[in-house]
Amino acid sequence: MGILTGVVPATEGRMELDGVEYEKEKYSTAIAKEGGIACCYQELSVCANLTVYENFAVTVMDHRPFGRHGWRKEMIRLAEDMLENVFPGNKINVRTKTGRLPIEQKQMVEVCCAMASEGVKVLILDEPTSSLTSDRIQQFHEAIKKMRDRDISVIYISHKLEEIINISTRIVVMRNGEQTGEITTELTTIEDLVNVMGGRVNTAVPGKKRKMNLSIFWTLNILRTKLSMTYPCISAGARSWGFQGLEAPGSVSC
After folding, report:
1. 10 domain-assigned
2. With 0-12 CB in 10 A as exposed, 13-18 as middle and 19+ as buried, what is 124?
């Protein structure tokens, strides 16, 4: 990804974009952007000290020395429209500082900034749904399909095999920096992918029945304003329990 976007210089191979070959040393982020390559990295790169619409401006606008008249209204409208098209009902105030948003909304802003890049021809998405809930993931996938219908190529990098099967038309499997397989999605299954990745699918094997030693009893208290809810949990023997939530603070689900 870094090489394609010009962030990391190539050390071997050949760089070609739209039929034009570039010397590895001269290929840059500017050339990649002009060629229509946009990327959403796994690590969030939104500027926390800027508003949501200002983050769109950083990604989309050509940075002229003296700016241009009316750019704020233009970027506010673009940010609102893009977020609503990709994530309907998101309720994100684009005038808010991005650093104040919960992690899910930050990722929504991140992917929408990349998708809004002017003249995008190839969109690279690295683990774009790691902080999204299932409903938001479904909305995001619908938006990707619409981009594909407009002849925009999408490189979707993910460890979530179900998502890869649902969203892609062709799958390339890599391990330790080397390609280990290339598959047409409609002809494959998750089990096939696991095998190509170098593993094997475990089958269920009947085991001996064991009596569980329910020795630990504890409760998890979730506190909200003027309300305390207690959820009883049982730990069986030497078991570890993990709780995770992706919604904004105040969510009652774990």
Report:
1. no
2. buried
Say if CB 44 and CB 107 are below 8 A apart: yes
> b/e map of 33-46 (b: 16 or more CB within 10 Å)?
bebbbbbbbeeeeb
Q: Report helix, strand or coil for 71.
A: helix
Among the residue ranges 157-161, 191-195, 236-240, the one predicted with the least confidence is: 236-240
Asked whether residue 241 is assigned to any structural domain, the reply reads: no
C-alpha torsion sign, points 195, 197, 199, 205: negative
Q: Which domain holds residue 135?
A: 15-196
Classified as helix, coil or strand, 178 is strand
DSSP-assigned letter for residue 216: E
Of 48, 46, 29, 157, whose CA–CA distance to 110 is shortest?
Answer: 46
Q: Is residue 230 part of a domain?
A: no
- Distance between CA atoms of 152 and 156, rounded to whole angstroms? 12
The whole-angstrom separation of Cα 27 and Cα 244 is: 42
Q: What is the pLDDT of residues 120-146, one digit of tens each?
A: 899 999 999 989 999 999 999 999 999
CA distances from 55 to 60, 95, 167 (A): 9, 10, 27
Pick from 100, 102, 106, 99: which is nearest to 83 by CA?
Answer: 106
* CATH code of the domain in which 46 resides: 3.40.50.300
